[in-house]
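Q: What would this chain look like folded?
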Amino acid sequence: MKLIEDESGLSVIVGTLLLIIVVVGSVSALALMVSEAQKKEMERNSLRIAVESENLKITSLALKTDNLSDESWSTLRINVVNLNTEEARIVGININDINAENYTDKDGVSYNFKNQFPIPSARSVKIFLNLTSNFTSPLNISKDRYIKVILFTSLANNFERVFLPPVPIIKVNVESEFNATEVLTLDGSDSIDREGTIINYTWHSDNFTPSYGYGQKYMTNNFTSPFNVTLSVTDSNGMQGSTQWIYP
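A: My prediction, written as structure tokens:
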């Protein structure tokens, strides 16, 4: 009888131990699940903060042609600064709604979606594109056309800027000098540039060789009317704009 009682007590103890083991296992599993959930939440918050704090600024362009007489750009340099404390990586570049297949750094190293272009924290870089060879088909951008640049980063951010050509404005004044000769004064100083600074003013006409400077004077007795004059202005990005005025 005593043996039976002892076995009954043993069963209770074993059952209690098994219950404790099950409870401890459940608590451990729950703690592990909570820990994993917290870890994933921390990773999500970290990624969200990284995405929100990524900050690239497209500061300027530098444009070139193969020949001075060309009407379209051949190469484009994008100047970019990273305003964040973390490195950014460019995975794609879009110019006027056309994606570039690849692009290069100042040393000629080629980059694309697989080989991402690094921009160190608090640093500026130059990204080069050949508008003929870096696209599936040559990208034809005339000197007086806008240029829209979009940078795509590895964090799925897009950084965009539109560069507009300068707007030439001609002010006209006709005065008579002491000898009764009329002097035509043309002033281009009110010309507007929204993306840079106008650095060059060039005046073209049928009667005179090209002249430079924001203002020009012409003796009206030196030409026959109608007198056509064109003002072309170039800004610090290399973009150009032109306008024509006819006298009288």
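The mean pLDDT is 86.
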